Amino acid sequence: MLRGFNLNSSIFAKRIYLLIFNFCVFKKLLWCDNQAENEKSGQCPKGWSDLKLLDKLKSFGQRRDVDMTEGGITRHIVCFAIPLLLGNLFQQFYNTVDSWVVGNYVSDTAFSAVGTVGPIINMLINTFLGLSTGASVVISQFYGAKQHERVQDAVHTSVMMTLILGVVFTIIGIAMTPLMLNLMETPDSVRPEATQYLIIYFSGIISLMLYNMGSGILRAIGDSQRPFYFLVVSALTNVVLDLVFVLVFKMGVSGVAIATVIAQTLSAALVLIVLLRAKNCCRLSLKKLRIHRSMLAKILKVGIPFKWLLRHFRMFSCNHTSTVSARTAWAAGQPMSKSISSSSFRCRAFRSL
After folding, report:
1. ∠223-224-229 over CA atoms, to 5°?
2. How far apart are CA 75 and CA 345, in angstroms?
3. pLDDT on residue 310
4. Of the candidates 58, 184, 169, which has an alpha carbon nearest to the alpha carbon of residue 117?
5. Which band of pLDDT confidence, cut at 50, 70 and 90, is reported for residue 33?
6. pLDDT of 351 above 80
7. Is the pLDDT of residue 352 over 70?
8. What span, in angstroms and rounded, lies between the C-alpha atoms of 314 and 216?
C-alpha cells in the first residue's frame, strides 16, 4: 500500500495514456492530412506512413524546424502545444516519482524529506522555464524575421548564460540549503535527509538548466516534439534508476537524488547533441560561445519570472509544519493533488497554448 497516497494512481496513468494517444492522432491528422503539400514543404517526411522504424530513427536528427508564418495557424498551434502540455506534466515527474519510491521502499521520514523539498524544486523548474522562455521568444522573433546571424548570437548567448548561471546556482544552492530548510521550518528528524537530497540535486542543477534552455531554443524554431521525447526518455530512466538504487543498492534518499541527476543529465546531453548537429541557424558551436550584451538584455527582459518566483515564495511561508506526521501528510497531498486536479490540468493546458 502506498504510504501517504490516498488517490487512485490508475486514474492519473489513464489520463497520461489518453494524452499521448491524442497527441499521436493529432499529429497524424493535422500534420499529414495533405501529404503532398507537407512533403513539398518538408513538414512531413516523404512516405511518413510507410516508413519503417529504422528509417524513422535515421531521420530523427534531421531538420524539424517549422515556419509558423506559413500554412494554417490552428494546425501549427495545436501540434506545437500538445508536446508542451505533456512536457509540463513529465517535468514534474522527477520529484513525484522520487517521493513514491522512497515512500514505498524506504521510510516515512525519507518520504517526508523528499516531499518537503518539492516547493524548492518547483521554484527552480519554473525559474529555468522562465529564462528559457525569454530566450525562446527572442530567438523565434529573429528566426521569423529571417535574421539568421541574430539567431546565432541569441543561441550562443543563451547557452553561455546558462553555463554561467549553472555554476552560480550550484555554489549558492549548496551553500544556502540549510538556510532554505530553516525558512521552511523543516523538522529536525527530516532535515538530514532533506539536506542530503538538495545537495545532490543542486550538484547536478546545470543539467536541468541546459535541458530547459536547449529545449527552449528548439521550440523557438517550431520543434516542440524532440524536447518532449527526450523528457520522456529521461523520466523513464529516472524511474528505473530510482528502483535500482533503492531496491538493489539500498541507497535511500541519496539514491533517488542521484538517479534524478543522471536522468536530467541524459536529457541535457540529448538536447545538446541535437543543437551541435543541427543544420539550420540554431546550430551550436562551442567556439562561438560568448555573451552578447544587447542580446542578454533582451532575454532577461522577457525571461525573468517575477510572478512565478513570488508565487512559489508564498509556498515557503505557508509551508510551516512542526511534526513529521503533518509534514508527511502535506508532502503526500501536495505533489499528487497538483498533478491531477482538473483546475491545475486546465492551467497547464492553457499555458502550453
Report:
1. 115
2. 22
3. 45
4. 184
5. very low
6. no
7. no
8. 27
Who's near 332: CB < 8 A, 6+ residues apart?
3, 4, 5, 6, 99, 103, 111, 115
Using alpha carbons, list the distances in angstroms from residue 201 to 162, 166, 223, 240, 350: 17, 12, 28, 18, 29
Spell out a b/e string for 139-162, using b for 16 or more CB atoms within 10 Å of the CB, else e: bbbbbeeeeeebbbbbbbbbbbbb
Cell, residue 337: 493533488
C-alpha cell recorded at residue 56: 524513422
Q: Are 270 and 223 in contact (CB under 8 A)?
A: no
pLDDT tens-digit series, residues 166-177: 999 999 999 999
User: What digits encode the pLDDT tens for the residues 160-209?
Assistant: 999 999 999 999 999 999 999 998 889 999 999 999 999 999 999 999 99
CA 254 to chain centroid, in Å, comes to 21
- Do 206 and 170 touch, CB atoms closer than 8 A? yes
Task: Give kind and range of the element (H or E) at residue 297.
Answer: helix 293-303
- The predicted-structure confidence for 74-94, as pLDDT tens digits, reads as follows 776 777 778 877 777 777 677
Q: CA 193, CA 99: separation in Å to the nearest integer?
A: 12
